[in-house]
Amino acid sequence: MKRIFELTMKDIERMDKNTLIETIKTSEGRTVMAETIVTVPPLVYGVSNMELAAAFGSDMITLNFFDFQKPFIFGIDDVEINFSAEPSELQKIVEIASKNAEDFDYIKRVKKIVGRFIGVNIEPVPEGVEYVEGRKLNKENLLKAKEYGFDYIVITGNPNTGVSVGTIIKGIELAKEILGENMMIIAGKMHGAGSGNIYEDKILKDFVKAGADCVLIPAPGTVPGIDLKLAKRQIDAIHQVGALAMTTIGTSQEGSQKSTIEFIGVQSKMAGADIQHIGDAGYAGVALPENIMALSIAIRGVRHTYRRMAYSLNK
Q1: Which of 285, 310, 313, 283 shows the shortest CA–CA distance to 296?
Q2: CATH of the domain spanning 4-310
Q3: CA 217, CA 243: separation in Å to the nearest integer?
Q4: Which SUPFAM superfamilies match (predicted)?
């Protein structure tokens, strides 16, 4: 079986959930996930943040702020919009988003452009919290995630959403019911999200019992109190119940100096992470591209990093 940094676009298109999970296991802690915000103009004109993250070594791309009711990705869907023209030109955004909402090949086409596994954040916000409907974890949005062809979902919470352990567990259970074995479910908290961090191993195991295939935790050095020892204990607990473990940089440190990213990457690898995630809070909805590459080099060296960066989509 190929490792994740050896996959071509043809390999990615043929993969189902279980094969993806086995590929990540085969890669021995050398899988890189980058998160991007889809609602802001890209860092580099003429290329989406998704493509930029892929070009700098990411294997998996997670979309943040994706709206299932009005799907629109800057850098992909705005190429024919002239933002310098009259205000009526902006109406095209609404028209394109409405068209995308009814196009169930939408993400499949995006995947062909980016050439990576593509997932989406979907948030189990508590009842009564005012939040964008298209970003909430509910039956309608989960069905659309399945129909669009995402490779995985990430059940977590952006800052100040009030997402809690209880809402995550309920969200996992609903996702498992609707998605079944069609899509990998990743769940957990990268930070407090307005309702506190997770330090108990039992909670992480409860996520797996509810149906999570992979559990995410903050990477060592990102959240107060999360050091190598605690991260390793938590990852061991996740592995004990048969799930993958992902460490995350979700505290804006994706905009730190490269030495910080390298330190976090090596600490996470020592802790046993299967996937290492780097967040979207660089300059404009994506980590500093150099930091994505620095994370990749830190955990798998230049040979495999350059291979991932250079592989032709059509090979």
Answers
A1: 310
A2: 3.20.20.70
A3: 13
A4: Ribulose-phoshate binding barrel
- What pLDDT digit, counting tens, does each position of 19-31 carry? 999 999 999 999 9
Secondary element (H or E) of residue 62:
strand 60-64
First to last CA, the chain: 17
Residue 197 near residue 223 (C-beta atoms within 8 A):
yes
Under 8 Å between Cβ of 238 and 198: no
Q: Which SS3 state, helix, strand or coil, does residue 13 take?
A: helix
Choose between 260 and 87: higher pLDDT.
260
Residues 213-241 pLDDT 10s: 999 999 999 999 999 999 999 999 999 99
* DSSP code at position 77: S
* Whether 49 contacts 41, CB under 8 Å: no
Quick one: pLDDT at residue 169? 97
The answer to whether 51 and 113 have CB atoms below 8 angstroms apart is yes
Helices 289-310/258-271 angle, 10° precision: 60
- Copy the structure tokens of residue 112: 């062909």
Contact 47, 54 (CB under 8 A): no
